[in-house]
Amino acid sequence: MSHLPVTGIWRQCPHCQRNVHQLEWGKLQICPHCGYYLRLTASQRIQQLSESFQSLPEITAAPPFAFPGYQAKLAQAQQQTGATEAFNAGVATLNGQSFMLGVMDSHFMMGTLNTIVGARLRQAISAAQTQRLPLVLVIASGGARMQEGILSLLQMNTVLAAFDDLNAAGNFTLNILTDPTMGGVSASFAFAADTVIAEAGATIGFAGKRVIQGTSREPLPPDFQSAASLYQQGQLDAVVKRTDLAAVVVQLLRLHQRK
Ligand SMILES: [Zn+2]
User: Quick one: which of 110, 136, 170, 179 is 20 to 30 A from 87 by CA?
Assistant: First the structure.
């Protein structure tokens, strides 16, 4: 199989190493041979979880720091993804249910949390509250965006505060943790929803495995930071297969419908 190209319409599965045609990866990007999930882009995720999607007005701003090389990295991420930042939100409908859907994109600078992503998250949370809609967040993030320093860390508590207001207002909130959910995002709003589920196979944690291994000098279990082990330890409400995710979202929204 090694003679086949690994880019373009064929893509090698990182898990079973077989070359898979893009039609076989399908909309949900699942390897037909071993069941491995490729990471979805924000637009693929929106397609998976909505029948209609009306974006909120897009917040954009210049990055607050002239960190060396940051502008070029941002421009590159924008060119590669066609998105302006690592988070998108809008009013979605799925199977007759309306909700606020916010999606992080790990393809855009690893879905890192910066001032604009934070502002967009607060905008989505506040719009859900005003429009009395449930909030569904799909989380995929490497953590805080180091190029924005302390302002990036500040997003952790300001988003969390907005989240708390929404929870206090009684809106149903659902977080779906996908691969990867790490760092300052896992340490703030990732676990703040009424219901927190994970996509099967997701890595969820704070510091990376190698860092912890290096610091603790203790052997770590093979399933360390896996969705399955977090579920076993009671940190997640469910672990859901990608193929079942849309149906589970519909079911949860229906169960928590406001009268
Ligand atoms: Zn595979």
Answer: 170
